[in-house]
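Async update (no meeting this week)

Hi team, since we skipped the sync, here's where things stand on the single-chain job. The sequence we agreed to prioritize is pasted below, unchanged from the tracker. I ran it this morning and attached the output directly underneath so nobody has to dig for it. Comments welcome in thread, and please keep replies under the output.
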Amino acid sequence: MRVSNVTVRKRLAIVLIAGILIFLIIDIRLGYVQFALGDLLTQRAKDSWSRNIPFEAKRGEIVDRNGVALATNKSAPTVYAVPRQINDADATAEKLAESLDVKKKKIYGYITQRQSIVRINEGRKISHDKAKEIRALNLKGVYIAEDSKRYYPFGSYLSHVLGFAGIDNQGLMGLEKYYDKELNGEKGSVKFFANAKGQRMENMADDYQAPRNGLNLELTIDSKVQTIVERELDNAQAKYNPDGIIAIAMNPNNGEIVAMASRPDFDPANFRHVPPEVYNRNLPVWSSYEPGSTFKIITLAAALEEGKVDLEKDHFHDPGHVEVGGARLRCWKKGGHGSQSFLEVVQNSCNPGFVELGDRLGKDKLFKYIKDFGFGQKTGIDLQGEGTGIMFNLSRVGPVEQATTAFGQGVSVTPIQQVAAVSAAVNGGILYTPYIAKELVDPETGETVMKKTPVAKRRVISKETSAGVRRALESVVAQGTGKNAFVEGYRVGGKTGTAQKAKDGRYLENNHIVSFIGFAPADDPQLVVYIAVDNPKGTIQFGGTVAAPIVGNIMEDSMHALNVEPRKQQIEKETTWLDTPMVKVPDLMGMNRKELREQMDNLRLDVSGKGNKVIDQAPSPGTKVKEGSMIRVYMEEGS
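Output:
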C-alpha cells in the first residue's frame, strides 16, 4: 500500500519533535546535574575517595582568678593506619609493634581490618619522641594524628574540685564533668584522597579542617590562698595522721570560693591508681556530720536578732549540766563555768548557756532561723555530689531535741552549708549561694561567653545583729576557746567545734571531728575559713587545740596574700603562761648606737650600715611582735 507524502511528512515531524523533546530532557537533566547538583555530587565523590585523619580539639583550660593554669593540655600524638594503603602488612606490623612495644599479632589485627581508617589503641597519646621514631620508619599507610591529653601542673593540688578527664578527654569527675560540654571543643581533620584500591591520589591536595577548641573556665579560686591551705593541710596530715581533713575558704560578701581542699587527696592524672571512695567524694560539699559548737553561731545570731539576750548585761550560772526533758545535758567543762555573762557563755562555748538561748527562742523560732540560714537544703554550689544534711522534723522536736540542736548536737550538716551560713552571720546578714566558676572565655577571641555574678538568696539577720555576732566571735578568739587562731595585727573572729562521731546509733569513744570556723578582719570580713579534722591522733581532740591554729596560720598568710591592711584597733589577747608576751616595737629613728643598746632589753637587733644614726627600721614603730624578736635597723653611712 502506497503511503501518501502527507503521512510521511507527519511521521517525520512526530519523530523530529520526539527527538527534540528527548534531547531537551537530556539537556535539562545534564544542566540540572551540572549546575544544581554538581557541588553535591562532587563532594559525595570526594567523600567516597577521602580518608580523614582526625585532629582532636584542645579541651578548654581551667585557670584560677588570676589566670594561673590549673588544668591544661599536653600534646600527645596518636597513630592511625589506612589498611588498603599497606602493601606488606606483615613487615609493617613487625616494625610498628617493635616501636610501640606490643605484640605483632595485635598490630597485624588492626592493619588488616576492612575499614577505611583504623586507630591503633596502643599508639594513643604517645610522646613526641615516639611519634618521631614512628615517622622515621616511613611506613606506608601509617599516619600520626595530632592529639592531646589532660595535664594538671600542680599534681594533687585542688584535685577533688578539678576532678579529671578520661583518655578521650571527656570530663569524668569534678569541674571537668560539671562543665564538660563547655570545655569540650569540636574535632578537626586532615582529609586526603584515595582511589578505589585505597591508594593515595597524589595529584589531589589534602583538605584541612581546623578543630574548634573548647572554652576556658576561670574559677573564683585564688591560687595564692589555695597554696597556703594545701600547705597547712599537708602539715596537719603529717602531724596528726587524721582519718580526713576538710578546708574551705570563701569570700563572705559574694559567695566566691577562694580555696577548697581535703585529705586524702589524689593526682588527677593518675586517678586509676586511687580507690573510687577517695576521688569520688569531694568532702567539703559531700560529707555530712554533727557540727558541734560551730553551730552555736546560728543560735547566737537568732537570739540577738530576736532580742532574747543582752550579751553584756544578762548573766547565766553554769553548774556543769542542765536537766531537760528527763535528760542530763553536760557542759564540756567538768563542774561548769559558774556565773558568767552571756558574752562569756559564747567565749567559753558553754553548752547549758546555749540550751538557755534555745529555750528563750522556742523551737519554732530556732528552727526557722536554722532553715533561713540554709541548713537542711543544698546551697546550690556548682560542684557535683552536694549533700543536704539532716535536720529534725519539727513535729518530732521535743525539749531534748531543741536543746541539743541549740548547741550543735543531733543534727547533721555539710561543711559548705556551715561556711555559707556563718558568712551570712558576719557579712551583714545576707545569705549568698556559694560558687566556684567565675566565667567561660573563648580562647580564640577572648570573648566572655558566660559570667557568673553573686546570688543573694535572702536577708537572714539585720546589719546590727551581724555586727553583734562579729564582736562576740572576735572576743572568742581573743579571750575564749579560740585563742590559738589569734593573729597579731588582724582582727580574727571565730568559733571552735568538737563533735563526737556516731556509728550504728551510738557515739564513738575518743573519736571526734574537731573544727574551727574563722573570719577576718572582724570589722570588715574579707575571708571565712573553715577547717575540720577527722579523728586526729596523738593529741587532745578539741577544736581549739587542733583546728584553731591551722585557721590562724591560713588567715595570717592569706591576709598578706590578699593585700588586706592590718588593723590598729584589736581586742587584746588574754595570755597564759604558755604564750610568748607581745611587745610594741619602739621608734628607733634618729637614735645612735648607744641609745639603741639602752632600748633593746626585750628585743634583738640586726644592724646594717657603718654610720651612727638610724635612718630606717623594720618592723615599723608601734608594730606588735613577740618578745625576743629581731628588729632590723639601717644606719646612715659616714655619720
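Quick observations from my side:
The mean pLDDT is 87.
The chain is about 35% helix and 25% strand.
Reply here if anything looks off.
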